[in-house]
Amino acid sequence: MIALSVIIVWGFTGPLFNFSDTWQLVINTGTTIITFLMVFLIQRPQNKDALAIHLKLNEIVAALQGASNRLIDVESLTEEEI
Predict the structure, then answer these.
(1) How far apart are CA 3 and CA 20, in angstroms?
(2) What is the pTM of this model?
(3) Which residues contact 74 (CB under 8 A, 6 or more apart)?
(4) Distance of alpha carbon 28 from alpha carbon 23, whole angstroms
């Protein structure tokens, strides 16, 4: 709702500022900053989830009798080694 309100206000102020380059730069700069911040906000939980999944899978492999431990550290291998 806030983003929509900002866009509507920005659109209505266009004729007031004669649709100048500065008027366009304001919305472009604002959206770039918001996008940059959102990437960090979204990426943090994704990294946390990935780490939790890796830990759980490692625990399952360690608990299974006869399971091979050679692939536990597969993330550190090169493509040729995989």
Answers:
(1) 21
(2) 0.52
(3) 82
(4) 9
